[in-house]
């Protein structure tokens, strides 16, 4: 089975974006970026929520296009539609969790869960995320979009490794200690 890896930049206080969706404050240059670009080559598939896809517009993404070359895209949304879209852009409207569960059963690399916090929260509650790769940036936002939305129970993590970059970013890899197909108590997966 393919792993689903939530690979994301996060503040020291656990936010992936500011309240207004801005990612100003994360370090966009440095040796951690080079490492991230190398990491991306390991994924052939990316999964993201609709607001994460739309956040790409601020960085030059054209509606209906793909954000990452050479990856199949699965954007979870009940509202998004395009008259024309790239052949590698799939919109998952209904039964998103089940579609992603099925995707994990297909052949391919580990799957890149790009974000955001809403989708990641649903997937964590459903016991679907296998690993976290957290690019912890040396910044505090105080408020914003949480790493996982809607998760109010403790989830055990197993630290796998840590890499410190000269830029100040620390990359922490964890596996998630949830039995496969055994959702977190209190989950309301959709
Ligand atoms: N720091 C980083 O590395 C990083 C990475 C990624 C994103 N971000 C930031 O995170 C922000 C977006 O995160 P977010 O939490 O607001 O939104 P999100 O998770 O990207 O998208 C939420 C939307 O996705 C759909 N969705 C999510 N879970 C679903 C489910 N279980 N079933 C069906 N549909 C589901 C819904 O779309 P519909 O309403 O269309 O149905 C929902 O409104 C952006 O500001 C982005 O810049 C940061």
- Kindly state the mean pLDDT as a whole number? 94
Q: What pattern of helices and strands is seen along the backbone? A: EEHEHEEHEHEEEE
* Fourth-level CATH superfamily of the domain at 1-72 and 114-133: Dihydrofolate Reductase, subunit A
CATH topology of the domain at 1-72 and 114-133: Dihydrofolate Reductase, subunit A
What oligomeric assembly is this protein in?
A: single chain
- Quickly give the structural class: alpha/beta
Given as residue ranges, the uncertain stretches (5+ residues, pLDDT < 50) are 185-190
Shape: globular
Give an overview in words.
- This protein is of the alpha/beta class.
- It has a domain at 1-72 and 114-133: Dihydrofolate Reductase, subunit A.
- The chain has helices at 31-40, 50-55, 96-104, 117-125; strands at residues 4-11, 15-17, 45-49, 72-76, 89-92, 111-115, 131-137, 145-146, 157-164, 170-176.
- Helix 2 (50-55) links the parallel strand 3 and strand 4.
- Bound molecules: NADP nicotinamide-adenine-dinucleotide phosphate.
- InterPro entries: DHFR-like_dom_sf, RibDG_C, Riboflavin_Biosynth_HTPR.
- Residues 2-171 form the Bacterial bifunctional deaminase-reductase C-terminal domain.
- It comes from Leptonema illini DSM 21528.
- GO terms for molecular function: 5-amino-6-(5-phosphoribosylamino)uracil reductase activity.
Task: Chart the SSEs and their pairings.
Blueprint (H helix, E strand, L loop, with lengths): L3 E8 L3 E3 L13 H10 L4 E5 H6 L16 E5 L12 E4 L3 H9 L6 E5 L1 H9 L5 E7 L7 E2 L10 E8 L5 E7 L14
Parallel strand pairs: 1-6, 1-7, 3-4, 3-6, 4-5
Antiparallel strand pairs: 2-8, 7-10, 9-10
Bound molecules: NADP nicotinamide-adenine-dinucleotide phosphate.
The site of NADP nicotinamide-adenine-dinucleotide phosphate has 29 residues, from β1, β2, β3, α2 and α3.
């Amino acid at each position: 089975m393919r792993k689903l890896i939530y690979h994301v930049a996060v503040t020291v206080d656990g936010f992936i974006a500011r309240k207004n969706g801005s990612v100003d404050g994360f370090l966009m240059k440095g040796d951690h970026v080079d490492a991230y670009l190398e990491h991306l080559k390991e994924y052939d598939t990316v999964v993201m929520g609709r607001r994460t896809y739309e956040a790409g517009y601020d960085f030059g993404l054209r509606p209906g296009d793909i954000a990452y070359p050479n990856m199949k895209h699965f954007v979870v949304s009940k509202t998004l539609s395009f008259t024309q879209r790239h052949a590698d852009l799939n919109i998952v409207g209904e039964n998103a969790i089940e579609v992603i569960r099925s995707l994990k059963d297909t052949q391919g690399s580990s799957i890149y869960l790009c974000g955001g916090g809403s989708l990641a929260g649903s997937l964590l509650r459903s016991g679907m995320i296998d690993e976290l790769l957290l690019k912890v940036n040396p910044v505090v936002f105080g408020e914003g979009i949480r790493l996982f939305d809607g998760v109010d129970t403790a989830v055990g993590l197993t630290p796998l490794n840590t890499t410190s970059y000269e830029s100040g970013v620390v990359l922490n890899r964890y596996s998630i200690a949830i039995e496969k197909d055994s959702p977190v108590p209190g989950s309301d997966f959709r």
